Amino acid sequence: MSDRESLFSLQRAQRAILARAQPLAAERIPLERALGRVAAVSLKSTMPKPSFDQSTRDGYGLADIPPDFAEYPELSLPVIGEIAAGAPEVGSLQQGQAVRIMTGAPVPTGCSRVLPFEVCREQDGRVTLAASLLRCPETYIRRRGSDLVAGRVLVRKGQAIRADHLLMLAENGYVGVRVVRRPRVEVVCTGSELVNPGARVGSGQKVSGNGVLLSALVRGTGAICAGTASVPDQVEQLTRALAERIEKGPQVIITTGGMGPGRFDLVEEVFAALGGETVYRRLKMRPGKSTLFGLVQGILFFGLPGPPPAVHLLFHELVAPALRGMQGQRRPVPERIPARLQEEVRLRRAGRMNLKAGVATFAQGRLVVRPAGRTDAANAVMLLPANRKIFRVDDRVPVHLL
Fold first, then answer.
1. Chain-centre distance of CA 394, in angstroms?
2. Which of 177, 208, 179 is CA-nearest to residue 192?
3. Please, are residues 293 and 279 in contact by the beta-carbon 8 Å criterion?
4. What CA–CA distance (Å, rounded) separates 267 from 264?
5. How far apart are CA 168 and CA 164, in angstroms?
6. How do the domains of the chain map onto residue ranges?
7. CATH superfamily of 54-142
8. Which among 308, 324, 294, 300 is positioned nearest to 357, based on CA atoms?
9. Contact at 8 Å (CB) between 396 and 339?
10. What is the pLDDT of residues 42-52, one digit of tens each?
11. Which of 251, 253, 367, 369 could make an S-S bridge to 358, C-beta 3.0–4.6 Å?
12. pTM for this entry
């Protein structure tokens, strides 16, 4: 049996896909547009944080106190000025001096600690304080670089940029960043019975929801859904629709439907006629037995079955890793995590891995999962092993969190 005729396991299919889903070129974009984008290079801090010694309380900054002063129960020190947050020049303190200082203000040279206003009293230009306060280990000073040193990696290459990353990058003077370009995806839903959402549904027809579903799923990975279309099961129209999408030059094309052995299942035939090269055409799992992956003119081509639940599951396991890989993400395939079943699961037959949509939550400190109902928003894929038909409550099963 040839390689493309053999049944691929899920892991083998993912390896084959990722080997062909290479990261795209980098581009520079403004920082405010970088949320969710993948860093093309590691982004490092350009300065220490804080960049100066900083007061953490409103109070009095004190210079070192002469040793003999500590013998007295109270000290009275001259207040030589005031420093507010943002002050450009703060001078220095000499031994035995104090300065009024605000939270966030730069600490002058010679200042060894700050005492909060509430433990001191000021009168006639002098501040009085208990000498015992000078033995307190808390100085109320954040030292330069205590939070972050210059040159520290803020965002690693291949990491998706989040809101807290944007804060750190802005604080380090970044106005733009280099990120990996986003792949463009075209979606074609096949089936003569399909009508677009909002259209009148006639006898024998049904609404095509796969276009809306895939558009959302594609955008959820950070990629661009460049267009969706519904095409009847006719060779000429399907050929024209796919040829038009190939001409647009996307990085990925996804079709739904038309992947079975029936007379009107035409996707594989048209794909081959357009010069497509098949990598695999069958998977050893449910859903996915009739699933195509290949390349046509350098474009990754995914032929998925028609039922939306199958489309949803197979997108997460096959297409999403490709889109993440093309964006340079370091871990495009989600990690398998063990979870305990909350409900029994019975399969019609064993012999193949089964993918099931699941709802995962934490209960009593552990991850638990149950099969998703028809109106549930699934947040996990259960990967049920091939050697069993019955999975009982509290059995451990591997899941991918969505």
1. 30
2. 208
3. yes
4. 9
5. 6
6. 10-24+182-326, 27-49+148-180, 54-142, 337-401
7. Molybdopterin biosynthesis moea protein, domain 3. (2.170.190.11)
8. 308
9. yes
10. 999 999 999 99
11. 369
12. 0.86
